[in-house]
Amino acid sequence: MNSKVVAHNSRAEDLELEKAVTEYKAGVSPAQIENNILRFIRILRSLGVRVSLVEGIEALAVLKKVDILNKEEVKIALRSMLVKDYEKIRIYNRVFEYFFASFTLENEEAEAENLDSTAEEETEEEEVLHDPISRADLDEEEEEERELEVDLDPEQQEFYDQLDPEIKEQVNEQVRSKFSETLLRTPQNESMVKNFIQGSLRYWQAKLNENRDNLIDLDTTVDVKKTGERELDNTLRQLVSKLDEEDEFILAKDIREIAETEMDRVTEIIRRLTKQLATKLSRRYKKSSKSKQLDIRATLHNSIKYGGTLAELSYRQQKLKKPKFLLICDVSDSMARYSQFVLQFVYGLADTVKGIDSFIFADDLEEVTDYFAGEGSFAEKMASVIGESEQWGGATDLDCALSTFNSNYKSLLTKRTVVFIVSDTKTLRVEKAAAKIEGMQRRVREIIWLNTLPKAMWKHRDSVKAFQKHCRMFKCNMIKDLQRIIKKEFL
Fold first, then answer.
1. N or C: which end of the chain has fewer CB within 10 A?
2. Long-range contacts of 231-240, Cβ-Cβ distance < 8 Å, separation of 24 or more
3. How many angstroms separate the CA atoms of 357 and 349, rounded?
4. Rounded to an integer, what distance in angstroms lies between the CA atom of residue 401 and that of residue 364?
5. Domains and CATH numbers, the chain
6. Whose CA is closest to 291, among 312, 321, 318?
7. How far apart are CA 414 and CA 324, in angstroms?
8. How far apart are CA 365 and CA 247, in angstroms?
9. What is the pLDDT of residues 218-273, one digit of tens each?
10. CB 63 within 8 Å of CB 15
11. CB of 388 within 8 A of CB of 368?
12. Residue 183 has what pLDDT?
């Protein structure tokens, strides 16, 4: 369906909803709150939350039965009427908090009026002390203490110093909202605060480098469509920016440090990322009129029916062939977590490649391709692999694993096969394993090695040097790394 038609239909439905609400009010002009609800629903739709005309009207009716001054009641009531998909709850919550930021609870207002005036006023010096980065207006002794707390590397400190004041304030506000004053002053939390700040600065550095001044038109981890109204689209840009920022902290985390409590959210992010990448990959492997070349032979043949006149031109175009992926994942004790995420990410692209064959190894090799076939969630399939595997959490012997592969699965290697090896290169008999990798490289399209070690360590490891001769090696200890590698190599 034409995208313009979709946009038109969406706008028509919005107008119909507005008209219905007006009629619903028996000829009385909608109140300001109802206009806000209509705009709120349009933003939810633009962010992929499906809300029908009837659900919009019913949501307005429900609001008559709750205390409109009670923010939490309004939030729960609207969510019960508008959100049907569990995965959209986070988006709903963020949009609600941002869009209705001016709402305040009645009891909060009363409490605010009774606050002691001395508690309401903060000196400029006290405000700065809440800021774990800013050193303005601190005396020399305090400034040295604050520098020690943050301990940014010179490159990040220089980047922070050059940021616009508005962005600096956003970084500081994130820290203040994440950590209380007590936590910021506790020495045991210095490392956690530092990691949080560094993650925020990495996000802004990447964001500014990519010149992402219009997040709606560029890549984002959130599915979004424009509304066509400048004011609402500006609101959408800010919302998407905030949602992306939240996701960025997960994407830029070392996979090994992702907590179990974050797993549901990580799964949702990976699903969205792979869905977007899969869509782009599908387009890439379809025939495109932009790549047409004149087919001289066919054109001359067609000219016969026109008496030799070249009245009808014929074109030929090459259709890109889908690659076949082959995964060989190290699931030894130090690598199992990383391999689990790589498997989840790559299988999210399964519909856009010719096929995926997957293997895990530690002491030896196991094929796990069949585990990922058929129905069921990835988490269930992964649980079966971990529960039934004899290799999970063992010691690493890549040479033995590759010997097993060559004996039983060598026929899987073709010139369309892209081999992904997930390992930190630590293994027994490095030279023998490297020789087998060299033999594999001659039979396939490419070998991509996903190395979870920090890149600064590579030059100190002979194993890295040995394997790098026969493949292309990328640092890959974050979900963001996986996303970047797939985009760079296949888009």
1. N
2. 232/39, 232/42, 232/43, 232/46, 235/43, 235/98, 235/99, 236/43, 236/46, 236/47, 238/98, 239/43, 239/47, 239/94, 239/95, 239/98, 240/47, 240/215, 240/216
3. 13
4. 4
5. 1-117+210-252 (no CATH), 288-319 (no CATH), 324-490 (3.40.50.410)
6. 318
7. 9
8. 35
9. 356 666 776 767 777 777 777 777 777 778 788 888 998 888 888 888 888 898 88
10. no
11. no
12. 62
Between vectors from CA 224 to CA 218 and to CA 225, what angle results, nearest 5°?
95
- pLDDT, averaged across the chain: 77
Question: Is the CB of residue 51 less than 8 Å from the CB of residue 17?
Answer: no
- CB-based contacts of 34, cutoff 8 Å, min separation 6: 21, 25, 60
How wide is the angle at C-alpha 90 spanned by C-alphas 87 and 93, nearest 5°?
A: 135
Instruction: Give 34: exposed, middle or buried? Use CB within 10 Å, 0-12, 13-18, 19+.
Output: middle
pTM: 0.59
Q: How many residues appear in the chain?
A: 491
Q: In one letter, which amino acid is 277?
A: L
How far is it, in rounded angstroms, from Cα 5 to Cα 10? 9
Q: Which of 118-132, 221-235, 266-280, 359-373 has the largest mean confidence?
A: 359-373
Most confident of 149-158, 182-191, 222-231, 323-332: 323-332
Question: How far is Cα 55 from Cα 224, in angstroms, rounded to an integer?
Answer: 21
Tell me the three-class secondary structure of the chain, residue by residue.
Answer: CCHHHHHHHHHHHHHHHHHHHHHHCCCCCCCHHHHHHHHHHHHHHHCCCCCCHHHHHHHHHHHCCCCCCCHHHHHHHHHHHHCCCHHHHHHHHHHHHHHCCCCCCHHHHHHHHCCCHHHHCCCHHHHHHCCCCCCCCCCHHHHHHHHHHHCCCHHHHHHHHHCCHHHHHHHHHHHHHHCCHHHHHCHHHHHHHHHHHHHHHHHHHHHHHCCCCCCCCCCCCCCCCCCCCHHHHHHHHHHHHHHHHHHHHHHCCCHHHCCHHHHHHHHHHHHHHHHHHHHHHHHHCCCCHHHCEECHHHHHHHHHHHCCCCCCCCEECCCCCCCEEEEEEECCCCCHHHHHHHHHHHHCCHHHCCEEEEEEECCCEEECHHHHCCCCCHHHHHHHHHHHCCCCCCCCCHHHHHHHHHHHCHHHCCCCEEEEEECCCCCCCHHHHHHHHHHHHCCCCEEEEEECCCHHHHHHCHHHHHHHCCCEEEECCCHHHHHHHHHHHHC
Q: Measuring CA to CA, which residue among 118, 160, 152, 154 is closest to residue 136?
A: 160
Whether residue 360 contacts residue 326, with contact meaning beta carbons closer than 8 Å, is answered with no
